[in-house]
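Homework help board

Subject: predicted structure for assignment chain

Our instructor gave us this sequence and asked us to write out the predicted structure in token form, then describe one feature. I got the tokens but I'm not sure how to describe them. Can anyone check?
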Amino acid sequence: MVSEKVLPSDVVESGHAPLDSGHARLRELGYRQELKRDLSVVSNFAFSFSIMSVLTGVTTVYNTGLNYGGPVSFVYGWFIVSAFTMIVALPMAEICSSYPTSGGLYYWSAKLAGPRWAPFASWITGWFNIVGQWAVTASVDFSLAELIRVIILLSTGGKNGGGYEASKYVVIALHGGILIVHGIINSLPISLLSFLGQMAAIWNVLGVLVLTIVIPSVATERASAKFVFTNFNTENGEGISSRPYIFVFGLLMSQYTLTGFDASALMTEETKDADRNGPKGIISAVGITIVVGWFYILGITFAVTDIVSLLNEDNDAGGYAIAEVFYQAFKKRYGNGSGGIVCLVIVGVAIFFCGMSSVTSNSRMAYAFSRDGAMPLSSLWHQVNKQEVPVYAVWLSVSVSFCMALTSLGSIVAFHAMVSMATIGLYIAYAFPIFFRVTLARKHFVPGPFNLGRYGVIVGWVAVLWVLTISILFSLPFSYPITAEKLNYTPVVVACLLTFVVSYWIISGRRWFKGPVTNI
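My token output:
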């Protein structure tokens, strides 16, 4: 039986030098060190920070925020979502400190649910986590493909100047190409990925700094402070007039951006002193994203003066709001929008890094989940190459993410449901281990070096209730009257995933899946 007592950082193997504290804890949990432990706390933070990428989340879902509430949804909604996101991140960091493994959420659920419920708890958590992560990768790289489409459109004259408008088939081909590049990069040694991850973090911070200064400075027309802090847009054309209802949907932009910080937990088997540095990575990624995101939202929104024209599909950017803001800011001042296109390229590079880190996170989750035998062909997906990289898991993640994006060929509405699934699915996976921590494991949970002390249970309950709240709110209809073209398919997608996971468990999984399996 594996002991639950936390190892001190100075554990020493007989006759050998002290083990890294994360390595020591991993051994106590029953796992061999198979991945190369080469990441510093900065590198661990960088992976989560680049996945949470402000330039990715805010830019690609800015239209949703403008349509549902506008500036008020951005400015105040960001703070509301940020506060609750940190409340979710804190108990996750506490659990990560106790169980620093690449299994992350599903492993935590197994250990916290107790022997009786461990197999099913880890099963449902793991599947929601891995599918949510694949949805994130699909949506991020599809967003980059869409941005490239807009950049090409503006570079060739814009929609009103005879610019080239790529078809949905060109967009999906671009998406596939981006995923292949990300697969190749993620097949390289972790030391290179660590370097690229740090570059991604720096690029995101500098990109936000440049854009928040340049765009308002270049714009010939700027919004007033009153507009930025008090304007509430109700002209959404969706048949919704209730201000609270509109405001709720405006929160999706913020919540979508503040997603993916579990990457720090998934990278713990490759992080030095993971029982300390994993939690630091989670909390710092969320905290810095909150601050950087606030400045980016303010900077861009001060350049917004006409919401209706920005959302109009007949403008030069084809209705891509932020692209239109950048393009028109330079065009009105200098006579052409080239500078705006350069600004979009800055955003595009950030999205590329975000997708790269997302594939890294996906592959580590798939590696750990298959190591415990939960996935079909598990023996294949958890193999590592000579560089100690789970290369088959990398290409599995790339392939599944591409297949998810194929839904855009049939209905862009269905694909947007996939984006919502990326948010709700991941947060449901976040909530499971926290729920088990404050219920079944309340009395026997043994904290690691980072812990919330007596506040752990209270914070955990608030986190669970927040996830439950957004899962309901983001499943509500976003347009009235409800039609097949305007239906919010998010609850349908979540219900299908839940049905699949539970059915698979009842029919097959319960007979052979016993939860995390030690390999020492």
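Reply (TA_rk): Your tokens look well-formed. For the description, you could write something like this. The chain is about 70% helix and 0% strand. That's the kind of observation they're looking for.
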